[in-house]
Design a protein that fits this description.
Strand content: 15-25%
Number of helices: 16
Helix content: 25-40%
Order of helices and strands: EHEHEHEHHEHEHHEEHHEHHEEEHEHEHH
CATH class of the largest domain: Alpha Beta
Distance between the termini: 49 Å
Oligomer: single chain
CATH architecture of the largest domain: Alpha-Beta Barrel
Structural class: alpha/beta
Length: about 425
C-alpha cells in the first residue's frame, strides 16, 4: 500500500484568524484550471490501494477554497484510482452530511481531521480559534454516524499558562471522540501572531528534544502520533528593513535574537561538515559577494574535495553566528555595523553577547575541530573565551605575528597578502 500527499494552495481560510497559523492568511489562490492540472498530475502517478492525504490552507469542505467541481473531480479520481484511504482536513462548520456522503462514494476509508488544538473553550478563545468544544463534538458525532473516522489535531506549547496540564486534559478529552490524534509541535509561521510573540520574547518554540520529551508519555498509545515539524521551519520576516547602526540596539536586535535561538535550539549543521571555520563578516552582503570572501573562498576551493566539503564556514558578526547557507537570509543580508564607530563599552558588550552566542551554538552542534581566520579583535576574543570555558581547542589560521605586522603597516583587512599567505599555508593542515 502506497501513501501520497497532495498539497493544494487553495487560498485564504474562511476564518484565517488563528494566532498560530500562517497558512490561513494566504490570499493567493490557484485558478480552477490550475487546480485541475495539479489533480491530473497527482493522480496520474498513483496506483490502486493507495492512501491519499489532502492538505490545503484551510478547509477541504469549504467551497470557497475547494470549488464544487474540484471536490467532485477529486471524488471521481479517487474512485477511478481505487484509493483505499483518504485523509482530509476541515473546520467543523463546513462538515456536512451531504459532503461526507459524497466523499464516501469513493468506497475508501474516510478520515476527517479537525484542528481541535485544545479542549478548553477559554484557550480556544485566547488563540482566536473561532470555534467551541461543542462544535468539535457535534462534527465528530456526525462523522462517526456516517462510519467515517475522526482525526484530531492538538497543539503542544500553546502560549497560555499551564499549557502542559491543559495538554493532558485535551488528550484525555480527544481520546473520547477521535480515532487518531496528532500532537503538533507549535512552530512560528512567518505570517502568524505567534511569530510576533517569538520576536517579542513572549513565547518560544520547543526544540525537537523538548517536544519528544514532553510527548513521550503517549509514545505507546497507537492512537496518538507526534508531529515535530509540520513545515520547513526557517525564520522569515514580514517587516524587512536595513538594520544599520552600532550599539546595543543593533547587537541584541530581536531579529538577531530569534535567529540565534533558532540556530542554537533547532538547526543542525549539514551532515559531514565536522570542521568549523569561523570567518569574519564583510561590509558587502551577502558575504560571498564581497572581495574579502571571494579571496577566502578562492583559497578554500583549492583544497582537496573531501577537505573542502568537510569545512563548515560560519561567520561571526554583531548578529551572532551565521552559517554560510544562511548568508542571504534576512536580516543577515541587510545590516551594517561600522567597527570605527565602536566605543569601549560596546566592544565589551559585543564580546559578552557574542561569547554566549558562540557557546550556545558550539554546544548544540558538536564539531570535531575548530578553526578561525580572524583578526585578534572582539570576534576572536569572544571565540577564545568560549573555547576556554568549554575546554575546546581551536586554532587561528591567521598568525599572531602576521597580525601584529599588519597592524604596524596600517593594514586592516584579513585579505592583505600576508594574511592570505597564512591562510594558504595553514588551511592545508585541516
Amino acid at each position: 500500500m502506497g501513501m501520497a500527499t497532495l498539497i493544494l494552495n487553495s487560498g485564504r481560510c474562511s476564518w484565517g484568524k488563528c494566532i498560530f497559523c500562517g497558512y490561513g492568511k494566504i490570499y493567493k489562490k490557484r485558478t480552477r484550471n490550475g487546480l485541475m492540472a495539479i489533480l491530473d498530475d497527482f493522480f496520474a502517478n498513483l496506483k490502486g490501494d493507495s492512501v491519499v492525504k489532502i492538505f490545503g490552507s484551510g478547509s477541504f469542505f469549504d467551497e470557497k477554497q475547494i470549488p464544487k467541481e474540484i471536490f467532485e473531480g477529486i471524488v471521481k479520481k479517487c474512485t477511478e484510482g481505487k484509493i483505499s484511504e483518504i485523509y482530509v482536513e476541515s473546520r467543523p462548520e463546513f462538515i456536512t452530511k451531504e459532503k461526507i456522503l459524497k466523499l464516501k462514494e469513493t468506497d475508501a476509508e474516510i478520515n476527517i481531521a479537525i484542528g481541535l488544538e485544545s479542549a478548553s473553550d477559554i484557550i480556544l478563545k485566547t488563540i482566536n480559534k473561532g470555534l467551541k468544544i461543542k462544535d468539535f463534538e457535534n462534527a465528530a458525532n456526525l462523522i462517526h454516524s456516517l462510519n467515517c473516522m475522526v482525526r484530531a489535531y492538538l497543539i503542544v506549547n500553546l502560549p497560555v499558562k499551564n499549557w502542559k496540564r491543559e495538554l493532558e486534559k485535551s488528550v484525555k478529552f480527544a481520546l473520547n471522540y477521535a480515532d487518531s490524534i496528532v500532537l503538533i509541535n507549535l512552530l512560528p509561521h512567518e505570517n502568524s501572531e505567534i511569530f510576533d510573540l517569538w520576536i517579542k520574547g513572549e513565547w518560544k518554540f520547543l526544540s525537537k528534544e523538548e517536544f519528544f520529551d514532553i510527548t513521550s508519555k503517549w509514545k505507546g498509545n497507537p492512537k496518538i502520533e507526534p508531529d515535530v515539524e509540520t513545515f520547513k521551519f526557517i525564520p522569515r520576516f514580514r517587516d524587512i528593513k536595513i538594520l544599520d547602526g552600532v550599539g546595543e540596539e543593533f547587537l541584541t536586535h530581536p531579529y538577531f535574537e530569534v535567529w540565534q535561538d533558532y540556530l542554537q535550539r533547532w538547526y543542525k549543521k549539514p551532515a559531514g561538515k565536522d570542521v568549523i571555520l569561523f570567518l569574519p563578516c564583510s561590509a558587502k552582503k551577502p558575504y560571498s559577494k564581497s572581495e574579502t570572501h571571494k579571496k577566502i573562498l578562492d583559497i578554500l576551493r583549492r583544497l582537496e574535495e573531501g577537505k573542502y566539503v568537510a569545512i563548515h564556514q560560519v561567520m561571526i558578526s554583531n548578529p551572532g553566528v551565521i552559517p554560510r547557507e544562511f548568508e542571504n537570509f534576512y536580516p543577515f543580508n541587510a545590516y551594517n555595523w561600522d567597527e570605527k564607530l565602536e566605543n569601549e563599552f560596546i566592544k565589551k558588550r559585543y564580546i559578552e553577547v557574542t561569547k554566549e552566542r558562540i557557546k550556545m551554538y558550539l554546544q548544540s552542534q558538536k564539531y570535531k575541530e575548530i578553526f578561525c581566520f580572524l583578526k585578534y579583535t572582539e570576534s576572536y576574543g569572544a571565540l577564545r573565551l568560549t573555547c576556554e570555558e568549554l575546554h575546546l581547542n581551536f586554532k587561528n589560521l591567521l598568525g599572531k605575528g602576521t597580525y601584529e605586522k599588519m597592524k604596524s603597516e596600517g593594514k586592516t583587512s584579513v585579505v592583505c597578502e600576508d594574511a592570505l599567505n597564512d591562510l594558504k599555508e595553514r588551511i592545508v593542515t585541516i
